[in-house]
Amino acid sequence: MRPFAALFRLIWGSDVDRPLRPILGISFAGSIAGSCVWSFVGIWAIKKLGADPTVLGIAYLISAAIAIGAGYVGGHLSDHLGRRPLILTAWAGQTLIVLAFAAAGDSWKAGLLILCFGGLFFQLGNAADQALIADLVGPERHEPAYAAVRVASNLGTTLGPPIGGLFLLVGSWTALFVGAATLSAIGFFVALLFLPRRGAYAPEEPPSRGSFGVIVRDKPFLLFLPSAALAWLVYVAFEAVLPISLVGSHGYSSSTWGFLVVVNPLLVTFFQLRLTERLRTVPGAVKLAVGLPLMGLPFLLLPLNDSLAVVMVILFLFVIGEMLWVPTSQTIVAGLAPPDIRGAYMGAFGAMGAVGFALAPFIGLQVRKSFGDSALWVLEAAISLAAAGAGAAAVRIALGRGRDEAETASVTA
User: Fold this and answer.
1) Half-sphere exposure of 276 (CA within 13 A, CB side)
2) pLDDT-derived band at 5, boundaries 50, 70, 90
3) Of 261, 198, 214, 231, which is closest to residue 352 (Cα–Cα)?
4) Which of 21, 215, 255, 302 has the fewest CB atoms nearer than 10 Å to its CB?
């Protein structure tokens, strides 16, 4: 076990909260199982099933739309039923979805119908996952906790696609889906055995009020949601549109992108926690104001110079911005959320990721087709600035509200 302990200390250090450690293992298992299969589903639909790319895009869009609703519903239910039942239901559902891909055979209609529900179970459990982290550790430990779980997820994402490729190499598409379903089932049993039933900081009683009414009256949170949606538009453009731009407009090969994209999860795995610790005293509004533009503005370099060195600089700056944005935004939402409806807040916030995945490829590719590659990156830079402004403003408003409430309480007392 010593090599594993040494690797754990290398990546996470020795300061990970003990209640959080099962969540690290579960997140690691989930990201391996998910990335093992979802990296290849689009290729399978086109090459194996002969699906029309336009119809495939519509299926992805429907999946994202379902995921948007599932995020809030899953979080809301986790507030009332507990985090554990929703997380286990999501694991079981994801396993069945992957097995259903294998059962689709050569029918593109069946395959794309199953794909439409691909985001359902992930979002159903994701809000419960995020809320459980805040249930397990105190508010002062939220940001390092979210950063630690993100590292586990990125490490699994790094390993999943090679494992999926190995399944394809030694077997077939059926082997890929059965293998990925097996990994997902293992994750389910790991969660069943080790997932905490409740956290030390969880509310004592289920909520006695409706979460939707509270959310629509929470002005800082309502401002933070479009900030998150805009940030996700930039993030998904990096994942889905940048490789198309590099290959189609800048002369890079697909294999070169395969090596470049590994930079992202590797940097997150080894530097996310260290960066979070170094900047723990920096206000969240400042981290958003700096981090989100770092995700978008560097793309403006690409039309000026598309050399490999410049592309590497863009990727590096993007990852720095991403490492500032993700745990900071999760921590902000956990702080904005009333404890009794924390899951619903996390679900609404998580749904913004589905918005990004639904719209970013469509908007980005349409702008690129109509106005050119340079216009695409100007748009992404502008979106990142808008996301930063909205996010920082939401935090400032929330801080002002907190001061007003504290002054009112002191006067009343």
Assistant:
1) 32
2) low
3) 231
4) 255
